[in-house]
Amino acid sequence: MAEAKKMMESPDWKKKMKDLTNDKAFKSNIDNVKKTMEDPNEAAKMQAKMEHMMKTGNKELHSDAKDTMATAMEAMNDPATMAEAARMMKDPQFQQQLAQMAKDPSFKKYVNAMQDMMQDPSTKRQMDQMADSFRSQL
Fold first, then answer.
1. Which residue has the higher pLDDT, 23 or 120?
2. CA gap 73, 22 in Å, rounded
3. Which residues have CB under 8 Å from 82's CB, separation 6+?
4. What is the dihedral of CA 17, 20, 21, 27, to 10 degrees?
5. Cα–Cα distance measured from residue 99 to residue 107, given in angstroms and rounded to the nearest whole number
6. Is 80 exceeded by the pLDDT of residue 20?
7. At 136, phi and psi to the nearest 5?
8. What is the pTM of this model?
9. How many angstroms separate the CA atoms of 37 and 18, rounded?
10. 45/68 Cα distance (integer angstroms)
């Protein structure tokens, strides 16, 4: 959120937004959207399309997160990767970065994907084995 606020306070961004709002094509599109939203049937159609797009997008994000976590789990089967991860976890600066990253809302999709993956008994068993191996490295 702080990054977005910083970006919106940027003179560059403000200039681009001013140019955009003065653009004839942009104004025309805004007028068309206003007219469309005045018609209850058209507004309902647009809402349904947006809801579908959000649902589809969320499914894709979730799927991508699961794929990323599966790839990370495969990488952790490599002893060299596991040793490197253990070394990094001992570094206080890395621990601080990890804590900061955990606060990032975009990181939540990976946590959610991991929770879904843990519902699968074989994945849970694999994670438990990796966790045991990781603890032995520390």
1. 23
2. 50
3. 76, 130, 133, 134, 137
4. -150
5. 11
6. yes
7. -70, -25
8. 0.43
9. 24
10. 34
